[in-house]
Amino acid sequence: MEYTDRKMNKQNTPEHTTEPGHPLHFGSSLTGRGVQFNLFSRNATAVSLLLFDEAEDTGPAEVIRLDPEQNRTGDVWHIHVLGLRTGQLYLYQVDGPFDPDRGHRFLPDKWLIDPYAKALTHDRPWKKWKRDLMPRCVVVNDYFDWQGDVPLNYPLRDCVIYETHLAGLSEHPSAESAAPGTYRGVIEKIPYFRDLGITSLEFLPIQEYNPHELLQKNPLNGRTLTNYWGYSTINFFSPAARYSSTGSRGQQVTEFKEMVRELHAAGIEVILDIVFNHTAEGNEEGPTISFRGLDNSIYYILDDTRRGYKNYSGCGNTMNCNHPILRNFIIDCLQYWVMEMHVDGFRFDLGSILGRDQKGRLLENPPIIERIAEDPILRGTKLIAEAWDAAGAYQVGSFPGGRWAEWNDRFRDDMRQFWRNDPRKISAMAMRFSGSSDLYLSDGRKPFHSINFITSHDGFTLNDLVSYQEKHNEENGEANRDGHNANYSANYGVEGSTEDAGIEQIRSRQIKNFLASLLLSTGTPMILGGDEFRRTQKGNNNTYCQDGPISWYDWTLIERYPVIHRFCRELIKFRRRHPAFMRPNFFSGQDLSLNGLPDITWLDEKCAPVDWNREKNILAALIDGSKADIQADRDDNDFFLMFNATGEEVRFQIPDPPSGKVWQRKIDTSMNPDILDINVVEDLNRQEYYRVESRSFVLLISEHYGSEAIRLG
Fold first, then answer.
1. Where is this region: Disordered (predicted)?
2. For the domain bounded by 589-711, which CATH number is listed?
3. For 162-179, how does the pLDDT look when each residue is reduced to its tens digit (9 = 90+)?
4. Distance, CA of 706 to chain centre
C-alpha cells in the first residue's frame, strides 16, 4: 500500500493516539474521547484508515495502519482514534488478493468509502473516479433537537402519496425559492402540500450518488447529461450533500432532519425510494468506490466464472442481498433511517432482487424480505415493493413477506387502456377500481396493499399521457431507444402541445377522468408530482438524465390550469371525507347491508347486470357506503358512479335512491364546475336518466333532502 507511515508532529510522535477499540457497530462513532472506526472485510489482508483535514486535500494528513493482531476481531477491523471530533474526514485503503477467478478485486492503491458513513463531502463534482476527487466520509454527531417528533406512520389506507424528485420541487425559477433544489426548498412548499391535501411525500432516491457518472451527451445542445434521478447509489446511509443549502461536512444530515421535522409538524409523512438492488460501481469495468474494494465476492452476486456480475438490475451489478452480511447491512441501514432520521417508509426499487439467493435464483421465502417485514423497529414503517426486476421477475400480487405493499402497474395499464377506449376493458377496469382482489385477496393482504397509480417518475406525466402518441426521448442521447414503449397513451389529434380548444378540452377531461379513477379507487393512491397542474416533460418518458426545466416543476402552470389543480385538490378532500373510498377490506359483492343491497353492484347504462364481454367501455357502479369501515363513527353515503370512455354521449338510467334520500350530483368531469364544493349540492329531483358526455365520469351521492347546503338550479 502506498501510505504506510503515520503523520508525525514536531516531537516525532504520531499525531493521534489510538486504542484497539471494539468490534461492535460499523461505521464511525463518536465516543467521549475520540472516534471509533469499524469496518467489515473478510478477505482483506491489510486495512489503513486515512484521515483528511480538508476535502480537497490531495493526500491524507495521517495514515493509520490497523494491526491484524490488535485491530481485528473475526471479520471486523476496528480502531479507536483519540482526539478526533465531529466533522473529521476519512477514507480507507484495503489490501487483499486481486484474484478475479475467485471473485476478489482488492486494489490497495484505491481510496474507499466506508459503507456505513453517514455523510460524504461534496465540495466539487466527481466527474471521474480519480482518487484525488473522491468524496470523503464525514464523522457525524447524531444529536438533533427533534422537539418531540416521531414518525407519523399513518395507516396506508388513509394515505394519499405524492411522488416527487426532491430538488425538482424548487429548482425552477417559478418556485421563487430561497434555497432552490434543497431540503429547505421542500420546507418552503409545505403550505402547498397542506392545501393540496396529500398525506405522504415519496422522494426519489436521496442517498448519496454521483450525478456526473453518465457519458452520453444531449444531441440537441451537446451538453453532457447527468444522473438526475439518483438510481445509482454510492452510499446508503448518507443523505445527498448536493441537496444541502448549508454545507457538506455533516450539515446535510441536520438539514434533512429539519425537513422531516417540519413536514411531520405539518402532518406529512416522508417515504424514501431506496435502491438496494445495485450500486454505482457497475460491472467489472466500472469504478472501485467502496463495496468492490472491501469484499467484492460477498457484496455482489457473481456469475459462474466469478469474474463478472449477474445483472438482474440492468445497471451492471446486483447486490447479494440474501448473504447474511448484506442482510445485516440492509437492516442496519433501514433502522438508521427510521430511528435517527425519522422517516415513515421505504419504496424498494426493483424489489424482486431482494428475493434472489446468492446464485440469483428467486426464493419462495427470501430471508431478507421476511426479516424486513418482521423487524421490530420497522414494524410500523411502510414497506412498498416495486415487485419486479430487470431480469424478468414479475411478482405483482405475489411479492413475499406478508405485509408488503406493491406498486400495482396492472392498475396503471388497465386504467390507461380503459380511458383510451381500448375494446373490452370494463372487466379489468372494474377489478382495479375495486381494489385488485384478484391480486391481493388470496394471500391475506388488503386493498391498501395495492399502491394504485396512473403515472410515476418512470414514464409519461399525466399531461403527456393525453398529449403524445409516442415517446420523445431524443434528448437522452440514446436515439429514442430508452424508456417504455407500451405507454397506452393518445394525443387526440395533435402530437404535443396545441392551441386547438377542442383537443385541449378532451385532454383536460381525460386528466380529470384519470384523477377521479385513481383517487376514488379502493387501494392507496399515488400521484406523480405536478400532475395536478399538468406538468409536462415534452413527451420524454425517461427523464433520468435531464436535470433542467424539462424535469423541474414549473409552478406557473397552476395559473395556466387552475381548473385541473382545483379538481385534484377537491377530489383528495372528497376521498378523505368518505370511508367508502378508503375501505380496509375488499368489497364482498354479496354481503347484504342494512338497505338490502350488496356493498357494490356493477351495472350497465340500463341499470341491468353487466355483460363483462361487451366491447364498449361503458360501466356503472352502485356503492353502498354503510359499514364501509366498521371503525368509522357513522355510515357513509351511498354513491352511483358512471364511466363513459367512448366518444359518444351515453344516457344512464339512475337507480332509485335509498329510502328518504335523493341523488345529488357531486362530480361530472364534462361540466363546469366539475366537482362541487363540500357545502354545494345539485339535486337531481328524482330524474330517471343522466346524460354522460363522451369521455366523462360522473359521481352521484345520496343525501337527505333537508340537509343544509347551497343548492344549484
1. 1-27
2. 2.60.40.1180
3. 999 999 999 999 999 999
4. 45
